[in-house]
Amino acid sequence: MTTGKNGRKEQIDQCTNECYIPYQTASSVTQQEITNFQNRLQRAMMQCQDDAQGMITPDMQNDDRKMRRVEDNLLKCLDIAVQKGREGLTPMKQRIETQLK
After folding, report:
1. How many Å apart are CA 19 and CA 26, to the nearest integer?
2. Non-local CB neighbours of 49 within 8 Å, separated by 6+ positions
3. What is d(CA 85, CA 44) in angstroms, rounded to the nearest whole number?
4. Full DSSP string of 58-99
5. What pLDDT is attached to residue 83?
6. What do you get for the CA distance between the two ends of the chain, in Å?
7. Could you give the C-alpha distances from 4 to 1, 7, 13, 44, in angstroms and in order?
8. Lowest mean pLDDT among 8-22, 32-46, 71-85
9. What is the pTM of this model?
10. Which of 25, 43, 59, 70 has the fewest CB atoms below 10 angstroms from its CB?
11. Distance of alpha carbon 61 from its chain centroid, rounded?
């Protein structure tokens, strides 16, 4: 096989580039799924904060008992958001695996 002066280097470069494609694909797919997951979780948490802020009235700000109730509702909402996020991890893993086959 005649490859010329740079033939072998070019073949190695081409092989390296072709071998790198699956890694780039896996990285891109995984990063996109993680970004989507983080965005969903962040939106859910922001909604919890908005809901909690919407519950506060001027007379509540000096009432520890009422503010504690708002805080409890916020924490429950955040807990639900995190649980839903955790439930979404298995489908996310499946989507990644499917795209990488």
Report:
1. 12
2. 74
3. 9
4. GGGTT-HHHHHHHHHHHHHHHHHHHHHHHHTHHHHHHHHHHH
5. 98
6. 34
7. 9, 5, 15, 60
8. 8-22
9. 0.76
10. 59
11. 35
Please name the amino acid found at residue 56: I
HEC per residue, 37-62:
HHHHHHHHHHHHHHHHHHHCCHHHCC
- Whether 55 and 95 have beta carbons less than 8 Å apart is answered as no
Mean pLDDT of the region 13-33: 91
Q: Which tokens belong to 78?
A: 């955040």
Structural contact between residues 89 and 38, judged by C-beta atoms closer than 8 angstroms: no
Residue ranges covered by each domain of the chain: 7-100
- Tokens representing 5? 């002066």
Contact 85, 41 (CB under 8 A): yes
